[in-house]
Amino acid sequence: MPEPLEPTPTTARNDDAAEEIVVDISHIQTEDDAPMDSLFAEREARLLVDSLYASWKPSASFLACDNVGIFYGLYLPPIAPDMFVSLDVAPPQREQVHEKRRRSYFVWEYGKPPDVVVEILSPSYRGEFDEKMKTYASVGVSYYVIHDPANYHAKKPLTCYELQGKRYAELASGKLTDVGLEASLWNGTYNGIEGEWLRWRDAAGNLLPTGAELAERERQRAERLAAELRKMGVDPDKI
After folding, report:
1. Does residue 182 sit in the same domain as residue 213?
2. Which of 37, 106, 120, 151 has the smallest number of CB atoms closer than 10 Å to its CB?
3. Is residue 173 assigned to a domain?
4. What are the tens digits of pLDDT across the range 44-70?
5. Burial 126-156, CB ≥16 within 10 A → b, else e
6. What is the rounded distance in angstroms from the CA atom of residue 161 to the CA atom of residue 184?
């Protein structure tokens, strides 16, 4: 497997000339329109992203994406995990979002690799335990999470790794200490499909709810409050 190139910025500042140098990335294809493997995998990736933006409160800004390519070398093929998380980076601004250099995750643009990548296994093996693992390690991704929801290729449904040196070491738990997240399995229903899902927990072990789950909690809280008011002889609709 080829070693990744040193990050080559698509834009860089030349201090001597005090002007921006633009590197040609016209040869790079940022989208291939390839479909997801299954309804479950598509929903699970969305669930992981949704819950982070709805509930996670890290001390730094972050970017969480599903099915977005990671470009780590100017002339190397990208790799596209089912989802990834990158701390200390900000999403592109409105005026930048459609620029080619902002449509994918170019490591040299963001100044760092993602901190976490997640792969959701399917019947078709795609090298998650060998080729992809080696690539993520060479890129410098700190944590690698593999969910095998139907025991297609792994002996257990959830395996988490931490980068130690140039190789991944399997973790005894799903705690991704340096990013303040924990990968865990959760039985329930999401978007109409019941199953065992990969979910995030915060550093304290609390499940990170989605936006819909937060809204449902608020609805139930309002109903309980209304019931208490009615017991007191107060019509909540007239408050």
Report:
1. no
2. 151
3. yes
4. 999 999 999 999 999 989 999 999 999
5. eebbeebbebbbbbebbbbbbbbbeeeeeee
6. 13
